[in-house]
Amino acid sequence: MENKLKDIEIENRSLTIRFQNLMTNHSELMTYNNELNTSHSKLMTDFNKLNNSYNELMTNHSKVMTTYNELNTNYSKFMINYNEVSTNYTALDDKVKKFAKDVRDGIISLHPSGWNYTSFRKSVYHFSTDSTNWADANITCASISCCSLVIVDDSAEQEFIKNYDKEKRWIGLQKDGAGNDFQWVDGTSLATAFWASDEPNNENTEFCVTKGAEFDQDKWNNDMCNAFHRRICEFKPECYVRKKLETDD
């Protein structure tokens, strides 16, 4: 009898331990289940957000495609108009260049009566026979549209004006007397110069420039602006024609 009781007690303890283990496992499973439920809830929330974002993206994509198609249509229209304008511009540009060439060649005259002139590259030059101070020379040349005292761009143009004659003649270069550098009448800075030896000198009083120096008639000399010299006017036919067309329009 005692042995039976002992066996029952042993079995009871064993069952108790097993029950406790089962309860522990159950508790752990419940905790894990709760964690899974929480994760599932978060995943569903994220899924819903992603789904909403996807729907928004699809809506935006549809709008973008509509805009793209409209832009593509407008671009096609623009290219048609651009090609027409480009063709018309090329034809007009050819006419302008031909007209300007006729002016340079003397076939068409746009110059004031009494001008003696000669052509070089794309410009027409007037070498005056009368003498004035620099300011009056500048005003006289500029009184004609697209005309000014000559601006010497490079050695080829310098060679052209020096070969015309050995006269001292005003060119479109001066300084304002405030210590500034020499500038052309169109406001551009002097880049390439053809000064005679020891020129420019007396820069506190001699602010204007001639082609033809005392001892080197092929180069430049700075002189007092109230001195009297002949002038060189440079007229640009293409500029004149373009301005005329703009005015007529």
UniProtKB/TrEMBL annotation:
C-type lectin domain ranges (all copies)? 120-234
Against SMART domains, the record matches this protein to: CLECT (SM00034)
InterPro entries documented for this protein:
AH/BAR_dom_sf (IPR027267), C-type_lectin-like (IPR001304), C-type_lectin-like/link_sf (IPR016186), C-type_lectin/snaclec_domain (IPR050111), CTDL_fold (IPR016187)
Report the coiled-coil segments.
none
Instruction: Read off the PROSITE patterns from this record.
Output: C_TYPE_LECTIN_2
One family from Pfam that matches here is Lectin_C
**PANTHER family registered for this protein in UniProt:** MANNOSE, PHOSPHOLIPASE, LECTIN RECEPTOR RELATED
Q: What is this protein called?
A: C-type lectin domain family 4 member G-like
Q: Which organism is it from?
A: Callorhinchus milii
Taxonomic placement: Eukaryota, Metazoa, Chordata, Craniata, Vertebrata
Gene name per UniProt? LOC103183131
